[in-house]
Amino acid sequence: MSKPIILTGDRTTGPLHLGHYVGSLRNRVAFQETHQQFLLLADAQALTDNVDDIARVRNNVIEVALDYLAVGIDPAKASICLQSHLPALAELSKLYLNFVTVARLERNPTIKDEIRARGFGRDIPAGFLCYPASQAADITAFRATVVPVGEDQAALIEQTNEIVRRVNALAGQALLPEAQAIIPHAGRLPGVDGRAKMSKSAGNAIPLSASPDAISAAVRAMFTDPGHLRIDDPGKVDGNVVFAYLDAFEDDRDAVEELKARYRRGGLGDSTIKRRLDGILQDLIAPIRAKRAELAANLDHVVEVIRTGTMKAREVTERTRRDVTEGLGLFQL
Ligand code: TRP
Description:
Blueprint: E1 5-11, H1 18-31, E2 36-42, H2 43-47, H3 54-71, E3 78-82, H4 87-96, H5 102-107, H6 109-118, H7 126-129, H8 131-141, E4 146-148, H9 154-171, E5 180-182, H10 212-220, H11 241-249, H12 253-265, H13 270-296, H14 299-327
Parallel strand pairs: 1-2, 2-3, 4-5
């Protein structure tokens, strides 16, 4: 039996960080053993809010590919492909725009949040407003049934499935499968400053390529409990970034629960829990950083990996484009 198909990806707007690792990369490395996986370098989607900085979108194609390979994505098992070089995705996006209304796009919670965060108001680029249709094209073109993403993407998968149901209803047959979002249990990793989301633009992220000193500096600066002034004071665990990270990265669950209990009681200093976390993050990132540096010394190889993955993706997505246009009854030459 063939393996279920996964499609997932990242906008090429910056190198990936620990938030991506917890939110999706870690899952993707595990899934490459059990699923046929395509990883999309979403440069076309990145353009929808970065058209005035195309160099950024271009340069980060390689950076994100380096991150994928450095965390353990194996090009023999998973295909890394470049969105802008897959014409079928653009064609399906355009088709799907006929199945969504502007009102529905504006109601999409992911889009709503992003419009607010970016301060677009009504001056939202049309391409940005419409990117849920393009993401639906990404997912369906690969016939993906599983989409491992961070929780902020769930509403996009929901909208994808609405489009799938409309296409299938109109075609009178199951042309496209519905997709299921896989959201990690760990939830979202907060920024080092305690804000809900880690992001490069907010300056509260730890990149996967961080140096040992940068990791230590980030851990030292981590938000804990401002009321926990002396070691003997009882401390708060909720909203404490160090504990959120220990939850995400410490495999020894019992040890974490014990630390939490001691911290709540009083008698456990911030420097002790930070030292423990620093050790864990150094051990996690060191091999990623080393592999990344090794790969970066031979970029021709990385470009070749992207080219090969994109060629394979072209075949798959072109076949779906044909099936969908035929299935809907469009004129074929
Ligand atoms: N929207 C995703 C992000 O912001 C990137 C992406 C593009 C994606 N196409 C996708 C994710 C398809 C999952 C499936 O990083």
